[in-house]
Design a protein that fits this description.
It is built from 4 helices and 2 strands, in the order E-H-H-H-E-H. The chain has helices at about 75-90, 90-115, 125-180, 200-210, and strands spanning about 60-65, 185. It has a two-stranded parallel ribbon with strand order 1-2. Helix 1 (about 75-90) packs antiparallel against helix 3 (about 125-180) and helix 2 (about 90-115) runs antiparallel to helix 3 (about 125-180).
Length: about 220
């Protein structure tokens, strides 16, 4: 089947770093007392301004692998349901192209058989050329039909999956906020040198999303 992966979903929440700024005022030097002039003047003690307190954000990072959303057994059920629907809509087109390819293979075999006939065997050059022309035209038809089918498939895939992608994006944002997560990296798109297993929220998110967004029995993809 013509099947290209969904364009990846990448979710990230920016982390803003704040620096704690403090300031101090240097004390004024005390004047040298003048004994002849009487007791020294009292110099008021310098006041130290209160330090400004700036809250530093606590960064809690998690990893998710969006390619797992399409796993037929453990992925997001709605994705797989839509994929089954999409492929079903293009099943006839797939069968037509397969039949054309089979016909092309048969023609190619017939052409080669005529070309490789034993020496002395009369060859019907007219029939041979006819089959060659048919084969060349069939190849062009297959290519054109496949290109048209791919374009139609991509357009229909966009129509079907875009609303669900938005839905999943909102659900992931809610999932993160509820757990105090402010950064989520897509491990399927960002090369990771190391990530502790405890930071992987893929399974937890898929389980929660499926439980809150069940696929109805009428649209459940066949097993």
């Amino acid at each position: 089947m013509i099947r290209k992966p969904l364009f990846p979903i990448c979710f990230s929440i920016a982390v803003v770093l704040a620096a704690l700024a403090t300031s101090a005022v240097a004390q004024q030097p005390r004047p040298t007392p003048n004994r002849a002039a009487g007791p020294p003047a009292t110099t008021p003690a310098p006041t130290t301004p209160a330090q400004a307190t700036v809250a530093l954000p606590v960064s809690k990072m998690a990893i998710i692998y969006t390619d797992m959303f399409l796993d037929p057994k453990t992925g997001i059920a709605k994705f797989n349901n839509l994929l089954t629907k999409l492929n079903g809509e293009f099943q006839k087109t797939k069968d037509d192209i397969t039949a054309m390819q089979t016909r092309g293979q048969t023609l190619e075999t017939e052409v080669n058989k005529l070309r490789d006939a034993p020496a002395g065997t009369p060859i019907d050059n007219t029939a041979l050329q006819t089959k060659i022309d048919q084969l060349e035209q069939l190849k062009k038809d297959i290519q054109r039909k496949a290109e048209d089918a791919q374009a139609a498939y991509n357009k229909r895939r966009q129509e079907l999956f875009q609303p669900l992608q938005i839905e999943v994006g909102k659900a992931l944002e809610e999932f993160a906020k509820a757990r105090g997560i402010n950064v989520i990296l897509d491990g399927a798109q960002v090369p990771l040198l190391y990530a502790a297993e405890s930071t992987d929220i893929t399974r937890a998110f898929i389980t929660e999303f499926n439980s809150k967004n069940p696929v109805t029995a009428a649209t459940t993809p066949p097993q």
